[in-house]
Specification:
Helix content: 25-40%
Structural class: alpha+beta
Distance between the termini: 38 Å
Mean pLDDT: 88
Strand content: 25-35%
Shape: globular
Number of strands: 15
Radius of gyration: 22 Å
Order of helices and strands: EEEEHHEEEEEHEEEEEHHHEH
């Protein structure tokens, strides 16, 4: 694939928000009213499948204090454009609306605890977007279908069965970084990992050695017992468990979904069977935080959490003396390149899905400085 470094402008100079392809940037986040600051670098890349191209990402620095980022994996049985449209709409909403809801909350004591006003704001942002999706679906899809159904029934004199059509939807895994901590809110199965240096961490011949990898998310699907029970209580149904498909269905709605939570997919949200309420994870950031990775299921279908962490760690180390944003772009490319190579040589399965990844590196400038100093010492 050869993603290489970003061909987009850094977020320092570009006011637009790219949502696919390759992008990288860097910033120093400063906490309002205190001396706390955090150097971050970030990269994102998508590898669209020719038949889909429905993955989107978002990256935006707000107010010099907050980095908002996310992966959005769109889906639709009817058209690629529908899934893509839902992913793009959710990306734009989440990184702008969430900032508006949280700008006065970040930096407060306890802001990054799971039970906090910051978490409540994330939930409110997701549910507000879903309410807008359902209002549009009611106006543009459901109401016309029901009018047509009534007309036909009047003509033939009998009631017709009806399943409401699918519209498409998206996963959403959104991160908020501030000098005090990291918040992740998500629906669906685009996964997030946080990697910290363990005591005695040092760069060695095996990438990932000395890293502690923590999964910040759990996939919202029928493999999760809590999600399965929640779905059934809300009136949803499961399909295909014997065949391994593990799909979600809702009475009166055509088709099925793989996920138990999403944005969009309006008819499936009847009775909150499929939910738009995000799960939330919060972590303080200290000197041991190295990077966070968010990726769509097209990545996790191929690699374990540990393998992705290992690839990213190795790429960041190999490019430590480059600019921090170039290192993050290279880390994203390394993961996608390894999937492409594995599919080409038959080591990895070839299936129809897009692949997207974001890497956010913490203390990026400090890492570059240490790598440069170490190189100078080794050459002296």
């Amino acid at each position: 694939m050869g993603c290489g470094a970003s061909t987009e402008k850094s977020s320092r100079t570009s006011p637009s928000m790219p949502m696919s392809g390759q992008h990288s940037g860097a910033a120093v986040l400063r906490a309002s009213g205190s001396s706390a600051e955090l150097s971050v670098a970030f990269g994102a890349a998508t590898l669209p499948h020719p038949q889909k191209d429905q993955d989107r990402f978002a990256l935006r620095v707000h107010g010099g204090s907050t980095l908002l980022f996310g992966i959005f994996d769109g889906h639709s049985v009817h058209s690629v454009e529908s899934g893509r449209g839902h992913a793009e709409a959710a990306a734009r909403h989440c990184v702008t609306d969430l900032w508006g809801r949280t700008r006065k909350l970040v930096g407060r004591d306890g802001a990054f605890e799971v039970a906090s006003p910051l978490s409540e704001a994330a939930v409110a942002s997701f549910t507000a977007h879903q309410a807008a999706c359902e209002k549009r679906y009611e106006r543009e899809v459901k109401a016309p279908v029901l009018r047509k159904k009534s007309q036909l029934e009047a003509e033939i004199g009998e009631e017709l069965p009806l399943e409401l059509p699918q519209e498409g939807g998206t996963t959403a895994t959104v991160g908020l970084v501030h000098p005090a901590g990291l918040l992740i809110a998500w629906v669906g199965d685009s996964r997030a990992l946080l990697c910290r240096r363990e005591a005695g961490y040092k760069v060695g011949p095996i990438a990932g050695t000395g890293l502690k990898t923590t999964s910040l998310t759990r996939d919202h699907n029928l493999d999760d017992q809590h999600e399965r029970e929640r779905l059934l209580r809300a009136g949803g149904k499961t399909m295909g468990r014997e065949s391994g498909l593990k799909s979600v269905s809702v009475a009166g709605v055509e088709g099925s979904l793989k996920v138990t939570r999403s944005l969009g997919d309006s008819p499936f949200h009847k009775g909150d069977a499929v939910s738009a309420t995000p799960s939330v994870a919060a972590q303080p950031l200290g000197d041991d935080a190295r990077f966070v990775v968010v990726a769509s299921d097209g990545v996790w279908d191929h690699f374990s959490n540990e393998r992705v962490a290992q690839i990213v760690d190795g790429a960041l180390t190999a490019h430590a003396r480059d600019s921090a944003e170039r290192a993050c772009a290279a880390a994203c490319a390394a993961v996608l390149d390894e999937i492409s190579l594995g599919q080409q040589n038959g080591d990895l399965k070839d299936h129809v899905d897009d692949k997207s990844i974001i890497v956010v590196q913490f203390d990026a400038e400090g890492e570059r400085r240490r790598a440069t100093e170490a190189s100078s010492l080794s050459q002296s």
